[in-house]
Design a protein that fits this description.
The protein has 347 residues and is an alpha/beta fold. Helices cover 30% and strands 26% of the residues.
């Protein structure tokens, strides 16, 4: 099928760019000498995760339990969930998953550890865990090496839970003293550390420098080797996703309307909201729920109703989460279609 035969709006992936990004990160980490554990929250597609594993990733990362369930259903068997698992429904799902695959979870409090321990004891399993350090992100994580030591000591006394190490995000050389002091304190207690997990696309070298045993990178699969910060960084050479849209109205010579709005792209600032490959001077300056508002005043091209355009969305991961399927294209031909099986799995 030619891409012009697709109904719109349709989310598509340029397979040549996808494969180049996957191979590029795998080679980058191999050259650095640090194992890669890819983060799948960007794409949520089991088939892409398997391409990443085949390229050398030692396993995957899933931000939410629901995403991990999808990946285990697709026979991915080594997953890190860097998220506090809290509440009886999630804990029961976690222990069920642990009995099907190697699942490691992060935590940063005794309360979370107790909950996991109690559920694991009840269900007859052992859950590997790592302690998250807040080394500057201001999100989750214990606030000091001493707090990490105390939490690790508590975990070592619990049944049904197995202390494996520590993690941070994002990897930064400023985190090195925090990590080193934590490791020294744990060593003084005789607590073994098997995992030191760092993360962040573009932070792989920092992960290596601060002593991590693995680095978690995810956005690269769609954005290339560094994060995209604005629409000027969106190029078809580095970015995988394209939303194929149709011009549905040309109300004025300076403005056209496309059939994709907030429910297709997300209205993620800053503007413009994406890059129109065929006409880079056209700017998506606004969105309604189902309409994209495009300023074409700087374009010499005369747009017509029914014309198709290819738009690289500004936030490719958030856009992906709005769609059920991803069409893989090579050139102007449709080669495959994948279900975005992890979309909407926010629980």
């Amino acid at each position: 099928m030619n891409i012009t035969d697709l109904d719109t709006p349709t989310l598509a992936a340029d397979l040549d760019v996808l494969e180049r990004n996957i191979d590029g990160m795998a080679q980058h980490c191999q050259q650095l000498g640090i194992p890669l554990r890819v983060h799948t929250k960007t794409h949520k597609v089991p088939e892409i995760a398997k391409l990443q594993i085949d390229a050398g990733s030692q396993g995957i990362t899933c931000q939410k339990l629901g995403e991990a369930e999808v990946m285990v259903d697709a026979d991915v068997d080594d997953i890190l969930i860097p998220y506090n698992i809290v509440g009886k429904p999630k804990l029961k799902r976690l222990t069920a998953l642990v009995q099907r695959a190697r699942i490691t979870v992060a935590l940063d409090s005794e309360e979370t550890a107790i909950g996991i321990s109690q559920q694991a004891i009840a269900d007859g399993c052992v859950v590997p865990v790592i302690v998250e350090l807040d080394t500057g992100s201001g999100r989750c994580g214990v606030q000091s090496p001493q707090a990490a030591q105390r939490l690790a000591q508590q975990i070592m006394k619990m049944q049904g839970i197995d202390f494996q190490g520590i993690m941070t995000y994002p990897s930064n050389v400023r985190a090195k003293p925090f990590i080193e002091e934590t490791l020294n304190l744990l060593s003084s207690d005789g607590i073994p550390v098997n995992i030191i997990s760092g993360g962040g696309t573009g932070s792989e070298a920092a992960s290596k420098e601060i002593g991590c045993t693995e680095t978690r990178s995810g956005s690269y699969v769609y954005e290339g080797m560094t994060r995209v910060g604005n629409s000027e960084m969106l190029t078809p050479e580095r970015c995988v996703l394209r939303v194929i849209v149709t011009v549905v109205s040309t109300p004025t010579p300076e403005r056209i309307i496309i059939d994709g709005g907030m429910k297709t792209f997300t209205s993620y600032p800053p503007t413009p909201y994406g890059h129109i490959i065929e006409h880079p001077d056209a700017k998506i300056y606004g969105m309604s729920v189902e309409h994209g508002h495009v300023d074409v005043s700087e374009c010499s091209h005369r747009f017509k109703v029914g014309e198709q355009l290819s738009v690289i969305p500004l936030h490719q991961g958030m856009t992906s989460n709005l769609h059920d399927k991803l069409v893989g294209i090579r050139g102007d031909q449709v080669e495959t279609t994948w279900q975005i099986a992890g979309r909407g799995k926010v629980f």
